[in-house]
Specification:
The complex is a heterodimer. By secondary structure, chain A is mostly beta strands. Chain A contains 4 helices and 19 strands. The chains are: A mainly beta, B mainly alpha. Chains A and B meet through loops of A and helix 2, helix 7 and helix 8 of B.
């Protein structure tokens, strides 16, 4: 909750600053909103637009706080970013995934059920909520193109981005029978706490198309090792818990895709949808298979439908329905999403 | 600022109040870019000019747009000494021409008319906002507003940083 208070005051400060100082000179909504990893974009997918309202002669920026809620998980994302001369975007973001005590309890029960015959009675465990914190440093460089103004060309605006993620609760934070203090990502078979995604985004706004509305189209291709966006670490490494031998490993980059479409219903109201594929490297995990749940951490493609409101250039509010598919102990994760952004 | 005054003197003031038409087949210096995505994909039977409601409607919102610009502290110093009525005429003729109306723009090319002004992207956008507001004040449907903006947007490289 400290994160919320900190970000709320940061956003308020930014809001006040931008009313006092000159507003950036770009048109309303052309910086997008903040995707949950901190880049300017939609909710799930980064766009090639540079965040904030700074033109090629100005520095813009934005701060965001996002909360995504689904039954047994809650994801907070907060951060800020600068848009330098409509060319370079630099972002710092912290994500905190709250894993409900039920999930920890279910994992513990599964372990007890699977291992008790082998290892004897476990020491007593009290399951609490677990938090997985991930810090993300992002940069996005606009390579070429003008998404909004170059209406005489289908050439999109194209940007190259990078997101370096550090998972702070990779191998500790949860007490589980037999194994002691473990981290959820490592327990589920992830290989690394840290990873770097590289992505290429192409974005085009079609002014006056269709039905006279402005339509934004975006495609993003991402090279990644992430499991569940990095919340469950990076890569796959399965180790036999009894003798420590390496059963299998996969730490290569894979290409994943994201697509967005967003239409301006009015000058300040944008309706959109997004789709993002995931690698699902943690599925068919033999150790979890011993417990009867080999696909506990299987990942599905994620999608969302969002409505973003830009009452002015200072604030934006995004509400979304997000479907994350399978999460551990929650096969159909439908989530409510609310995001606030302050920009200049 | 005398730079715009010079521009205003160069521009020839022709008859106001009626649709300025030029013999068909003549070509203006105005459109220095390819057909917009909106034009390429449009299935509308009537021209944007007709759907807007003709020259009178364009003249009305352009007039309000110029008034907004002259009242806009972000950019109005760029228009010091400019003949507002002539500017309104030139812009109305320009939009009439671009939107498929019977006008042929008689003014200078965008590159020439903004030469030496060093207009920034932010100033260009401020003008766009002032004209969007004028279209909303004149009850131009949002869809048509976007199509007018789509026709003007590709001119940005010809106008800024000159």
């Amino acid at each position: 909750m400290k994160l919320i208070q900190y970000l709320m005051s940061l956003m308020l400060a930014l809001g006040l600053m931008s009313t006092a100082a000159a507003q950036g000179g770009r048109l309303l909504a052309t910086g997008g909103v903040s995707q949950f990893e901190g880049a300017g974009g939609g909710g799930l997918v980064p766009w090639a637009l540079i965040a904030g309202y700074g033109t090629e002669d100005e520095i813009g920026g934005a701060a965001h706080y996002t909360y995504l809620h689904t039954d047994r998980y809650g994801l907070q994302s907060g951060g800020f970013k600068l848009g330098l001369f409509d060319r370079l975007e630099l972002s710092l973001t912290r994500q905190q995934l709250r894993v409900d005590s039920d999930v920890i309890g279910d994992t513990a029960s599964a372990l007890i059920g699977g291992l008790e015959p082998i290892l004897g009675s476990p020491s007593p465990v009290s399951a609490g909520n677990a938090n997985i914190t991930t810090d993300i440093v992002g940069a996005k460089f606009r390579l070429f193109g003008d998404a909004v103004y170059a209406q005489d060309s289908w050439m999109p605006q194209v940007a190259l981005g990078v997101q370096h993620k550090r998972n702070g609760d990779f191998d500790s934070g949860v007490v589980v029978p037999y194994l002691g203090n473990v981290g959820v990502p490592a327990l589920l078979g992830a290989a690394d706490a840290n990873g770097t995604d590289i992505y290429l985004s192409a974005t085009k706004v079609l002014l006056g198309v269709p039905f006279g509305r402005n339509l934004l189209l975006n495609a993003t291709v991402r090279a990644t090792k992430a499991n569940a966006f990095g919340l469950l670490g990076f890569g796959r490494r399965v180790i036999n818990p009894l003798d420590g031998t390496l059963l299998d490993e996969d730490t290569d980059y894979e290409l994943e895709y994201g697509f967005s479409a967003a239409m301006f219903l009015t000058p300040s109201l944008v309706l959109g949808g997004e789709y993002r594929t995931q690698s699902s490297r943690l599925e068919n995990q033999p150790v979890l298979g011993l417990l009867g749940a080999p696909d506990l951490a299987e990942e599905d493609d994620a999608y969302d439908v969002f409505l973003a409101w830009f009452p002015n250039k200072i604030f934006a509010i995004t509400a979304a329905y997000v479907d994350l598919g399978n999460l551990p102990f929650q096969p159909d994760s439908e989530a409510a999403y609310l995001s606030l952004q302050a920009s200049f | 600022m005398t730079r715009f005054l010079t521009l205003a003197l160069i521009l020839t003031l022709t008859a106001c109040g009626s649709v300025p038409t030029t013999p068909s087949g003549a070509d203006s210096d105005l459109k220095n870019y390819d057909r917009t995505i909106y034009e390429q994909t449009s299935t509308a039977d009537a021209s944007l000019y007709d759907r807007l409601g003709g020259y009178e409607v364009i003249e009305r919102f352009v007039g309000d747009g110029v008034d907004n610009v002259l009242a806009d502290d972000r950019i109005n110093d760029l228009f010091d000494g400019v003949d507002a009525e002539n500017l309104k005429f030139q812009l109305s003729e320009q939009i009439c021409d671009l939107a498929g109306g019977p006008c042929i723009y008689s003014g200078m090319s965008m590159e020439d008319s903004h030469f030496g002004l060093d207009i920034t992207a932010a100033e260009f956008n401020a003008l766009v906002e002032d004209f969007q507001q004028a279209m909303r004040d004149n009850d131009i449907p949002y869809g048509l507003e976007n199509q007018v903006v789509a026709l003007l947007a590709p001119m940005k490289p010809a106008i800024i940083n000159r």
